[in-house]
Each structure stands twice: as C-alpha cells, then as structure tokens.
Amino acid sequence: MDKVRAAAVEVVHDVFENGAYANVALVNALRNGSYSDIDRRFMTELVYGTVKAAGTLDWIIRQYVSRPVSKMKPYIRAILRVGAYQLRYLEKVPDAAVCNESVEIAKKYGNAGEVKFVNAVLRNLARSPEKAAFPEGKGKATQHLALSSMHPEWIVRRWIKQFGYDAAERLCTFDNAPAVLSVRTNTLKTTRDGLLSKLLEEGWDAEASEFAPEGIVCRGSHGSLDASRLLAEGYFQVQDESSMQVAHVLEPKPGEFVIDACSAPGGKTTHIAQLMQNKGRIAAFDLYEVKLKKINENAERLGITCIETHEGDARNIGKLYSGMADRLLVDAPCSGMGVLRRRADARWSKTEKGNAELPALQLEILDGAVPALKTGGILVYSTCTIEPAENQDVVTEFLKRHDEFVLEKTGSFLPLKKRPDEDMVQFYPHKDGIDGFFIARMRKVK
Ligand SMILES: C[S@@+](CC[C@H](N)C(=O)[O-])C[C@H]1O[C@@H](n2cnc3c(N)ncnc32)[C@H](O)[C@@H]1O
User: Is the CB of 359 under 6 A from ligand 1?
Assistant: First the structure.
C-alpha cells in the first residue's frame, strides 16, 4: 500500500470527520513519517487539493453511485474523495495507479463489498469522465461556478448577488490560488530594509509591501519557516498585509493603556506593541487560554514585554476597566469569508445559518467592551470578512445604540495606501489583491 496516499486519506478523514484543521493535521502527518521531498509535495497536493475540492468531488462521485456520499462510511468516503481528486485534477498520475492504490487502502478500512465498491466507482470515473461534466446553460450558472471553482453553492449564490457573476468568479479564483506569504518586520529589532536584505541573502523571493510600512511579501520561493533563524530570533512575524492595517488605524502611542478584546493568536497585539515601542500597557483578552499561550510565545520571541494576557470574555471588559483605556481594539470573531484561501477546509465548515448568528455576538462584544474606554478614546472594530451584515451593519447599529461614539474617516488612518474619503474601509480580495478585511475607527466623544 502506498504510504503517501494512505496518509493523505487519514488526514482527509481527520479533517472532515473530526474537525481537524487541514494544515495542522498535514504538518503532524508529515512529521510522523519519514518522507522524501517528492512524497511531501505529493501528500500536500493530495490533502489540500482534496480538502479544497471536497464538495465538487462529492458531486462527481455522486454521478457514479446511487446513494448520497454523505451516507457512506467515513473512510470509504475519504478514499473515494482522494481517488476522485487524483483522477479529475492530477493529469500526470496514471488512472490505473489511482484505482489500484485506492483499492489497497480500502482493504485496510472496509469489507470485501466496500473494496469492490471503491474499485467500481473509481474505474467508472476513470473510464467515463464525461458522465461528471459540470451542468451548463440556463439556470445553471451558480451551480456551474460553485462546482468548477470548488466552493459551496450558498457562498457563490451570495457573492453573485452581492458583487455580480464576474466578481464572484474572481473571488473564487483568489481563494484557490496559493496564499502569498507576508511577514511583518519586528521594528523593535530591525528595519524593514535590514530584514529584507537578510531575507534576500537567504534566497527569499521577497519585496517590500505596498500596503504596510513594515510589511514584506514573498510571492515566489522562500526558505522553510520552521527552520528560519530570523523567525526564531524574533526579526519578523507572519501576518497578512490587510491585517497589518489594523494597528495603524488604532494608532497606539508609547505609554498608553490599550485593550485588545479578542486578541489570540496575537498578530495585531504584537503589532500594537511595536507601534508603542514596547512602552505602556496592553491587556490582551481571549476566551481560550491555549490560544493566549501563543501570544505569550510570540511576545517572548519578538522581545515584547508590555503585553499582559487575560483569559476572559470580551463582553465583561467594560466592567473590569471602566473608563480606563486610551484605545480599544475589537477584532471580532467573524465568518472569515475574506480569508478562505488561507484555510483549505474553511469553505466547507462554514454555514449560512452559523454566519447569520455572528452579528448579534459582535454587537454584544462591542456593547460589553466599550465602557472601558476613556472619553476621547479610540475604538477600532475589525473583521476578516466581506459580509456587510458583520461589518457596516454592525457599526451602523452600534452607532445607533451609542451616541457617545462618532465614526472617523477610517481610510485616512491607513498607513500607506490612504482612502481619505472612506468612513469604513473594506478590503476585497478580488479588487485589492489581499485578504478581505473590514476596519472602522470610532472616537468616544462624551
Ligand atoms: C479574529 S480572531 C482574533 C485574531 C487576533 N486579533 C489576531 O490578530 O491574531 C477572534 C478571536 O476572538 C476570540 N473570541 C471569541 N469570542 C470571544 C469573546 N466573547 N471574548 C473574547 N474573545 C473571544 C476567539 O477565540 C479568537 O481568538
């Protein structure tokens, strides 16, 4: 049995049946086996490809079987998904190898009937691919785009309604492209130019970000992050360019008291600390202690000492720090619809119903946290989604409830590419080429 395909099936099973994150499960699987570089690349392709395409693969498989894929035994489903992915998307892999190896893996997890079933489905798929041609024509546009772009139909339907067909298609394309690596220079230790020249010396294909003064983007090859001495010694933090906008909009000053209400894993908290030159006090809250550990680890690596972490609910922050804070960041839990490219499994784990529940929570967090601000204090609300209900609508409702706050021209606080006319800033992947992100800056005036 081919150990690479077998391990890929295990990871795919773990993602869909146990809710594992694809990247975490894959890293663990790669660590636990001794694989050549070619094997590692193949396994990565199999896992990310199958996970991203899962809904489309289920539709393809369904064209060859009479019962729904959701009713199959989980391991048989995972074997068929990984097999169908190879047959449909990996031209260089011979069909016979896919079928034979899948059958061998099925012998480990299934009875004789199930082994036969896997064999029959995959051989039919290989023999008659035309049976699973995506529907086209009148009334089929949404389904066609969803299947061809490997997105759930409900997401595609929403995006077509919100942006039109062409933009929805570009959004889907963005999600399927490999995520560009971007890093934030630790300006407490070096300058961006200093870090950039070190990275270039180490063979990184890196350049300065147009969006963030401390940002560096790497569109091509780069060394392994696991092995990077510069990362281990705290010269940089991995962070997307749109996420790097938020701390600049908050504009923290050395010596101030800043609260980061939803802070883990601390990408923005540590950026705030840099902008404060590590002077002052940052109270970083999150519901989960395990996640807060990550902030402490990052802070230690980056040489930051002004962050204190607190396990707690952001909805109670107002009571704990009434009128004390100079600035408050609410980087709220959200649907993450602007960052689907970063997590292969995310598009299948979200639901329309789950997303609809988020604005109420986001407002509760804002309502519960803002009494912590001083008069004159600054509130920044941000999310990594492109859903108006979680963004502009939440801010509008918040301002209705709180006449002590006024909205400022958020776009004029962006560090490099200013948008002086924009009260609230929404970055869109298909327009801006970076993660989808929303930022609104408000001031407490009384
Ligand atoms: C968007 S993430 C924050 C990302 C973080 N600001 C960064 O830049 O690395 C939202 C965080 O809010 C936390 N969270 C969810 N509900 C919360 C609540 N009621 N109080 C505090 N934190 C909460 C989640 O655990 C999650 O870590």
Answer: no
- Say if residues 408 and 379 touch (Cβ distance below 8 Å): no
How many whole angstroms separate alpha carbon 93 and alpha carbon 91? 6
Helix or strand or coil: residue 193? helix
- Point out the least confidently predicted range of 84-88, 137-141, 327-331: 137-141
Q: Which CATH superfamily is domain 181-238 in?
A: Sun protein; domain 3 (3.30.70.1170)
**Catalytic residue at 384?**
yes
How far is the centre of ligand 1, averaged over its atoms, from the C-alpha of 310 (Å)?
12
Q: Are 379 and 405 in contact (CB under 8 A)?
A: yes
CA of 96 to the centre of ligand 1 (A): 47
Nearest to 291, CA basis, from 351, 333, 353, 240: 333
Per-domain residue ranges of the chain = 3-132, 141-176, 181-238, 244-444
Provide the token pair at 46: 């199999």
pLDDT the model gives residue 144: 97
CB 414 within 8 A of CB 221: no
> Model confidence at 1, in pLDDT bands (50, 70, 90)?
low
244-444, CATH topology level: Rossmann fold (3.40.50)
Average pLDDT of the residues in 41-57: 96
R_g (Cα) of the chain, nearest Å: 24
Does the beta carbon of 263 lie inside 6 Å of ligand 1? Answer: yes
If one residue of 287, 334, 362 were mutated to test the ligand 1 pocket, choosing by the most ligand atoms within 8 A of its CB, it would be 287
Residue 267 Cα to ligand 1 midpoint, Å, equals 11
**CATH class as words, domain 3-132:** mainly alpha
On whether the CB atoms of residues 362 and 315 are closer than 8 A, the answer is no
Q: What is the pLDDT of residue 349?
A: 92
pLDDT digits (tens, 9 = 90+) for 380-403: 999 999 999 999 999 999 999 999
Task: Output the known binding site for S-adenosyl-L-methionine.
Answer: 262-268, 286, 313, 331
103-128: pLDDT as tens digits: 999 999 999 999 999 999 999 999 99
Handedness of CA 110, 113, 115, 117 (dihedral sign): negative
Say if the ipTM goes beyond 0.85: yes
- Does the pLDDT of residue 343 top 90, yes or no? no
For the question of whether the overall pTM of this predicted structure is more than 0.80, the answer is: yes
Q: Which residues have C-beta within 8 Å of that of residue 97, sequence separation ≥ 6?
A: none
Q: What type of residue sits at position 290?
A: V
